[in-house]
Amino acid sequence: MLPGAEILIKCLEKEDVEVIFGYPGGAALEIFDALRKSTQIRQILNRHEQGAAHAANGYARASGKVGVCLATSGPGATNLVTGIATAYMDSIPIVFITGQVSTSMVGTDAFQEVDITGISDPITKHNYLVKDARQIPRVVKEAFYIAKSGRPGPVLIDILKDVCADTIEWEECTNIELRGYKPKVTGHLGQIKQVSELIQEARRPIICAGGGVVSAGASAELLQLAEAQRIPVCNTLMGIGSIPQNHPLALGMLGTYGLAVPNMAVQQCDLFIALGMRFDDRVTGNTDKFAPGARIVHIDIDAAEIGKNVRVDVPLVGDLKVVLNQLNTRIQKKKNIQWWQEIDALKEKYLHEIIPAAAELSAVEVLTGLNGVLPTNAIVTTDVGQHQIWAAQLLEMKTPRSFISSGGLGTMGYGIPAALGAQIARSEHPVIVITGDGSFQMGLPELGTALEQELPLKVLLLNNQTLGMVKQLQDNYCESRYTAVHFKKNPDFQSIARAYGALGLKVTKREELLEKVKQFVQYPGFVILEVIVSNKDNVYPVVLTGGGLHEMTGLGKDEDE
Amino acid sequence: MRHTLAVLVENSPGVLSHVAGLFARRGYNIESLVVGETEDQTVSRITLVVEGDEKVIEQVGKQLNKQVEVIKVNDITNEEMVERQLLLLKVGADPSTRQDIMQLVEIFRCRIVDIGRRSLIVEATGDEEKIQAIVKSLQPYGIQELVRTGKVAMVRGQK
Ligand SMILES: Cc1ncc(C[n+]2csc(CCOP(=O)(O)OP(=O)(O)O)c2C)c(N)n1
Asked: Is A472 a pocket residue for ligand 1 (Cβ < 6 Å)?
């Protein structure tokens, strides 16, 4: 006989859980007490539940395993919400466990009672309210299976306090039957045939690799397809690293904040092959103007994504790794020589597209400098803002799971906690956070977790004293009427570094940059490098609202109409 | 266009709110929704009437299918089917109109289930068209109260 909480921990151990990120409280008392006894599971005490959620996210993304995050009822649960939504938008497998008030208190607006299954319904792949300890083994098994299979995503388990205390006989659940949930793995043969014919016929094909390539572990298959026919490959923000960014076929990130070459190429292509992506508006720009001359093939594991945002000529539902293998057996060699002449011309034309406008030190220079000394095994996480976009555009990540950024929700405060999760998953890799002074102050509490866990995080703080991305929006859409974007006062970030036991480095002049960046990357411990950068630069070129991908503003003088 | 969807779901608590929530947040218009247990106690059937073009209906079906508790979604709009709604209607009736109302009730083959001093309660089942016709015919006598269910539907023959 065991109490429910201990059964829960045993079930987590059976799922090979090795670390839980979390924050305690009354309704989770029993669960933490049971967790204490586990020798298999390392418990990380975060500084905020949102940080715990993002840490589980970074852990899942760096490792490819399911992240686990534990919080108490009420405010603990609501503090998770942004983290759950962040994971949901980026299809990251995480099992969230929340304590809940006791059965007798449910529905009475009891102290710290909140309907978290109701609240999280639109932002979870599935959720459970566990009212009986005997359900625990099945629920845990289902939750892990649902989180990681098909299109991955967060699953929440809310467990009543008295259920955690109830002692019952533990019966392991070995078999689950979910008749309403059967992810499709293999691609439809007729459609495979159709797609392979389209690829064969295409004269100007382009592949767009999304986060699905990363989560399906299908990079090798993607490369095989692309290389067989020399098909250019662009990527979404979530698809960074699915192809080495310095690969001769790689064009880089497309989208409204994407690069000119992939954007122009997409508008000229005759076949757009979408792999594990969902045609987010940041990717397509105005959908009516998207890839006007192209047939669109959409390969994704989630049937509901197909045809949701853009017209699709051939859908193909299945696991990308499996489907690409099916396709690759049918693909003959081809070189697309003429198409590459066109693409090379685009590359020539837009060679120096990202040029800082300001005379002062710019974030672009810093990131270019970092790129030059970036260790090949580095994992980069970012926060959200201009620094994120420049990092996505400029850093040449070479492997999947090496670039970790909040793509779908764009959550500021993600970078630091995600980095600590990634560092725990991959202790041998250097983990670098790229953040801005706005985002840094949202993720700040988790520096405490990094300190306590002795994690050698490297935080690159691009300090422009500004919420740069919103300032840019005000430039673009409010005729530069600035409101609530300039910090009149910021804390002394060097003192913060010291307070958290990190080495503080600071660059204010261009001359110091490269040396300090090198020192930063090579430093073996926890380090924060603050670089004072201009707030005048904007992410240009950019596609403004309503524009097609080819209608990029700020492409340089000769391009302006 | 209006579509009728027959959705088989797990008969467990929370399913209905998941489905209703999905419609609300994706901005789909539910015209009516009826839910009840089926021949298999572990399965409920939701009959949904949804308004939307082909693209919307396709998304509705796919989004429903994505829910873990949804077992099967069938669009039966174009099938040969039997469909029924239930109507209860309280209509004003005094000695001078009572006979006329009874006659109408006879013609439509519905029933009077309660006789009050100044009103009658009429019960009717039928498809949308019939229910509308009844309501329309009784309107002149003064409808005091009206409740109706959404429609349930079953495909004819073997399936
Ligand atoms: C939690 C959250 N709040 C607000 C926003 C809106 N937002 C997007 S970018 C941005 C500014 C980010 O500033 P900073 O981190 O300093 O980066 P910069 O753009 O200056 O590089 C804001 C406020 C957001 N994405 N997330």
From this structure: no
